[in-house]
């Protein structure tokens, strides 16, 4: 009897020691994505590829859910700031890289390796990510997330509308702001009730105003938001030239939809204007092609590849752009971060790493081809992305990696809104901007060029 009992306890101990443990955990992902709506392709990829693939790899005990957030980028940012500050929120969150410094300084994010340890530093994916791409989701040399890729900004063109105005879209490439405005005037003359030119402005559009609108004009004056010493430029001829461009488009000549810049749903209105043929020239990131105008989008452009093309944004005058360039653009990066309050930090990292594996990003290319963060993931059968990245990545720049940038950007948006609404002159708006930025960063961190 003793022998049998001894054998029983040995077999039980062996089973306990060597049996594979069953993982039981719930993970959540949130991103600004809605299948059939905004960033539809991202939502579809997460739901149909990432989640099934990860749960198959980890076993039935792991459950992953996606929360599809339909609000604006700014609303998601506010929600994540509230969640992260109160110990709530998703395990993995969609995030724009430019927000990382302010979240870090606010104690709302932690480096990936601090959250998940050696699994992060030993991840084989790092060898396929350049330092520049890694920097899109980093701050002070520490990685806080992984970007899904990068982008460039162009003038999207309704070729059919240019043809109607007697302009050859195949050869159309403005070489100055004067050329751009001249085309907008011809389009307006052809269709007086149209708004031919869209340059994002105002507070409701948030960072889309700063990056897609203000930056794209300011770079054409040879300036950036900061100087080469990292000081914020608070008064300059470049700022005035940029604000006067906004004034010409929205106040003086009504070449753009002034009302859309001031409304809460203004950005969607500008998308609808382009879709419906009311706007022919629209400054946006290549996301506009990848997602907004795609066939399954609310703002899909019918026969897109026949009626839609692109052009480079010119400097104010040839050779007057940043670094003496004739044309300008700017790049950013969005991706995902880990919630430092997650109860499953290491598993959340595994999910993030899985999302950014070669296999999963290659699968994402089937949903939404774009310039991916990994150098071993190709852009297949996407002539538009291949053409724009080849032409514009050598010309691009990026936003300051600074914790105060987000607050300064908000003042840029207020400055453009004051001009577009007619509330202030460019000089008055710049003066108010100067005072606001000095309050934010300190006068010693600013410079006036006038």
TrEMBL record:
It comes from Sinorhizobium chiapasense. It comes from the Bacteria. Pfam families: SBP_bac_1. Belongs to the bacterial solute-binding protein 1 family. Keywords: Periplasm, Plasmid, Signal. It is found in: Periplasm. This is Extracellular solute-binding protein. Residues 1-19 form the signal peptide.
């Amino acid at each position: 009897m003793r022998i049998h009992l001894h054998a029983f306890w040995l077999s039980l101990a062996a089973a306990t020691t060597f049996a594979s443990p069953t993982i039981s955990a719930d993970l959540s992902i949130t991103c600004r994505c809605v299948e059939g709506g905004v960033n539809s392709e991202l939502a579809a990829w997460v739901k149909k590829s990432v989640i099934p693939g990860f749960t198959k790899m980890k076993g039935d005990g792991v459950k992953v859910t996606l929360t599809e957030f339909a609000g604006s980028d700014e609303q998601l940012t506010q929600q994540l700031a509230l969640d992260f500050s109160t110990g709530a929120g998703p395990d993995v969150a969609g995030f724009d890289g430019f927000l990382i410094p302010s979240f870090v300084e606010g104690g709302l994010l932690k480096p990936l390796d601090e959250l998940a340890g050696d699994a992060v530093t030993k991840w084989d994916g790092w060898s396929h990510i350049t330092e520049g791409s890694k920097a899109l989701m980093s701050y002070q040399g520490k990685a806080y997330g992984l970007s899904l890729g990068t982008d460039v900004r162009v003038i999207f063109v309704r070729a059919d509308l240019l043809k109607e105005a007697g302009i050859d879209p195949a050869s159309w490439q403005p070489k100055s702001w004067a050329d751009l405005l001249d085309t907008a005037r011809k389009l307006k003359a052809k269709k007086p009730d149209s708004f031919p030119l869209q340059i994002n402005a105002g507070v409701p559009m948030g960072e889309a105003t700063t990056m897609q609108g203000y930056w794209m004009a300011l770079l054409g004056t040879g300036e950036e938001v900061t100087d080469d010493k990292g000081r914020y430029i608070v008064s300059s001829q470049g700022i005035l030239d940029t604000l006067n461009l906004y004034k010409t488009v929205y106040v003086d000549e009504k070449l753009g939809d002034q009302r859309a810049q001031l409304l809460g749903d203004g950005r969607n209105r500008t998308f609808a204007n382009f879709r419906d043929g009311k706007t022919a020239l629209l400054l946006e990131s290549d996301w506009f092609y990848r997602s907004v105008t795609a066939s399954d989008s609310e703002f899909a452009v019918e026969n897109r590849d026949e009626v839609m093309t692109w052009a480079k944004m010119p400097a104010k005058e040839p050779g007057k752009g940043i670094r003496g360039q004739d044309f300008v653009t700017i790049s950013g990066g969005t991706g995902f971060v880990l919630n430092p309050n997650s109860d499953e930090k290491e598993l959340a990292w595994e999910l993030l790493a899985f999302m950014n594996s070669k296999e999963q990003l290659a699968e994402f290319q089937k949903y939404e081809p774009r310039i991916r963060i990994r150098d071993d993931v190709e852009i297949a059968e996407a002539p538009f992305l291949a053409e724009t990245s080849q032409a514009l990545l050598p010309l691009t720049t990026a936003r300051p990696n600074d914790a105060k940038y987000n607050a300064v950007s908000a003042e840029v948006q207020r400055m453009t809104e004051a001009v577009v609404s007619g509330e202030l002159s460019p000089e008055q708006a710049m003066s108010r901007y100067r005072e606001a930025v000095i309050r934010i960063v300190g006068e010693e961190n600013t410079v006036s060029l006038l």
